[in-house]
TrEMBL record:
It is an enzyme of class 2 (transferase). Signal peptide: none annotated. Residues 147-184 are annotated as: LID. Catalyzes the reversible transfer of the terminal phosphate group between ATP and AMP. Plays an important role in cellular energy homeostasis and in adenine nucleotide metabolism. Pathway: Purine metabolism; AMP biosynthesis via salvage pathway; AMP from ADP: step 1/1. It is found in: Cytoplasm. This is Adenylate kinase. Its EC number is 2.7.4.3. It comes from Occallatibacter riparius. It holds the Pfam family ADK_lid. Monomer. GO terms for molecular function: AMP kinase activity; ATP binding.
Amino acid sequence: MSSLSSTIEHGWELSRKTVPGPILLLGAPGVGKGTQAKELVKIWDIPQISTGDLLRANVAQGTELGKIAKQTMDSGNLVPDSLVNEMVAVRLKQPDTVNGFILDGFPRTLGQAGWLDGRLSAQPETLPVVAVSIQVDYNQLLRRITGRRNCPVCQTIYNIYMKPPAMVGICDVEGAALVQRADDTEEAFTERMRVYAAQTAPVIEHYRGLGRFAEVDGDRAIDVVAAGIIAAVERLRKE
C-alpha cells in the first residue's frame, strides 16, 4: 500500500469514530457531489438527502406533499421553497439522521439555508450544518460535461476527452452509437453555471461568515477528494 493510500485509510478509520452531523456538499455541475456523497455514506453510515430524490419519491408515493408538488409542476411552476422545506423536515425526523446526514442540492438558496439553520438550532442535540465546497477548474468541468457520451443500451458513460471508447462514437460493450444528453452542451452548461453561481454564492458567504465553510480540491482521485472532505468536516467540527 502506498504512503498516500495508508494515510487516507488511517484517516477514514479515525473518521468512523467521529459524529459528522449535518454536512452540506456544494459544488458546480459536474464536480462529483453525488459520487462524493456516496463515499461519505459508506464511511460514516449516514444518509444522503437529495431534494430531487425527495421530490420524486413524494410524487411517486402519492403523499399529500407529493400531490401538491405534482400539481404545481404540472402547471408549469417551480416547486416553492416552503414545500421543499416541508419535505426535508419530514425526512429529518427519520431515525437514520441522528448522527448526521449529507445534503445534496439543499439548501440551494439563502432562504433555504436560513430555514434549515433555524430548524436545527431548535434541536439542541443536533449539530449545526457545516458546508464543504468541491472546487474544480471551469475548463476541466466543461470537458467533463460536454465530453460525456452515453450508450443508450447498457448506459455505460464515456468521455471523449478523458475516457473515450475504442472506436469513436461507438460503445465498447454493445456496439451501439453513443449519444449526448441535450443538457450536456456548452450553452446549457454555461447557463447552469450562471444559475449555480447566482443562487449558491449567498449560501457560501452565509456559512463562511458563520465559520462553518471549507473548500477542497475536486480535481483528484475519488478517494483523495473524500479524504479531503473528511478532514475539512473534522476541522470545522473542532473550531
